[in-house]
Amino acid sequence: MMDSHFAANNRAAEGGLKIAYFDCYNGISGDMALGALLDGGVDLKELRELLDGLKLSGWSLTTETVTRGGIAGTRVLISLDGGKEPERHLSDVLAILEQAELPAQVKKNSRTVFNCLAEAEAAVHGTTVDKVHFHEVGALDAIIDITGTCAALYLLGIERLICSPLPVSRGEVKCAHGTLPLPAPATLELLAGRQAPLEGRDAGYELVTPTGAALVTALADSFGPIPAFQITDVGCGAGSIDTGYANYLRVLLGYTDLVEGIHEEKIVVIEANIDDLSPEIYGYVMERLFEAGAVDVYFTPVQMKKNRPGVLLTALVPPEKMKAVRDLIFLETSTLGFRMTIARKLMRSREVKTVQTQWGSVRVKYVPDPKDGLLLHYAPEYEDCRSVAVKAGLPLKEIYRLVENLFQNRNKLSD
To answer: Which of 32, 57, 279, 408 has the CA that lies 20 to 30 A from 228?
Structure first.
């Protein structure tokens, strides 16, 4: 899971994290995301005042209430003065953001989105990031969409963004490069980079735009079903096309029961009972499962049918790595099937600092208390300690003690 891109701005639920869930049941674009957040409670006047910090002229931001498929929502309208816009590269957009008078978090997230867009465009067109020409996504309205969405998330005090699976359709779209297949190449590049889950849809028009894909792939902590949380508000952002049904992006706003310093993600728990595999193979299977993406693998002795001694293979796997792990279990073990459950995984946020010894550096993972910065837990990295122990010719346990003492004495959390 990605580190959170957001900092608390106006937390209202004691002890909970404020989250936004993008329900992209009919896709996402920049204006749909901005419209959904405005519909979900962002004050338009406050957003305009924040965006004035871009120091760009020739635009105005208004909204209108529309009804699609019997459901009311907000459509964002960005009007331009009609003048010819300059051709912008990534450096031009980043310069605009650098000079802007915006909150640091808004600047940081906006830069992240545009960098992701540039990397995707460079990969698609076989060029470098600094040579990418921003056409549609470098236009003034796209800059307002992206920066406005980042600003709206900031104004809402969102601390974590989660996104649903994304619908994609076949067809064609016209852009500055000509007629391109759907999903647009840059969109696919962005989604592939995050291994975002996709759902095929027979729509015939663009459901996920490059701007929409960049927003969620750059800012979302994770992709998946609606998490367990207390919902407080819902916003509907209208797409530009009136399809005759509810063409919206919905944003669900609310609070998790997590406290600061703890985050949650979904994990797949795989279990397989095996009683006919050579013991020599289990170590190899564990190594391969870790290589395939499992975050933990362990074996438990069990008594099976006919009183046979067996092994319970358990693997904890991120949902996006499930296919690779599944195929490997069937390939490398003798099991004919296994059980899967989806679990909630709660984890303390951790940080890493480096301790220097006379034989080399050692990384130390630690968990600071988010309230007062005190150490809750810390542990030297085994592989680093092992390397130093071999080089120094000292017992591993002595290296552990040395590193722990150095960490306590030399690495203060206030550094």
So the answer is: 32
Q: Residue 103, Cβ neighbours under 10 Å: how many?
A: 17
Tokens of 388: 């130093």
Q: 50 CB contacts (<8 Å, ≥6 apart)?
A: 102, 103, 106, 151, 154, 155
Provide the pLDDT for residue 86: 73
Percentage, residues of the chain above pLDDT 90: 55
Task: Let me know whether 210 and 95 are in one domain.
Answer: yes
Task: Compute CA distances 171 → 202, 244, 253, whole Å.
Answer: 9, 19, 33
Q: Of 254, 248, 210, give the one whose Cα is nearest residue 39.
A: 248
3-state SS assignment for residue 60: strand
Instruction: Give the confidence band of 374 by pLDDT, cuts at 50, 70, 90.
Output: low
- Indicate whether 357 and 233 sit together in one domain: no
> Tens of pLDDT along 54-92?
999 889 999 999 999 889 999 999 988 876 667 788 888
CA 343 to chain centre: 19
In a domain, 8, yes or no: no
Phi first, then psi, for residue 123 (nearest 5°) are -65, -40
What percent of the residues of the chain are helix, what percent strand, and what percent coil, each to the nearest 5? 35, 30, 30
Q: How would you class 313 by CB atoms within 10 Å of its CB: exposed for 0-12, middle for 13-18, buried for 19 or more?
A: buried
Q: What is the pTM of this model?
A: 0.65
Q: Is 245 a member of any domain?
A: yes
Q: Which of 344, 398, 333, 12 is nearest to 162 (CA)?
A: 344
DSSP code for 84: P
CA distance 160 to 170: 31
Token match 């968990």: residue?
Answer: 367
The SS3 call for residue 298 is: strand
Strand partners, 238: 248
Are 215 and 358 within one domain? no
Q: List the domain range (segments joined by +) for residue 373.
A: 351-410
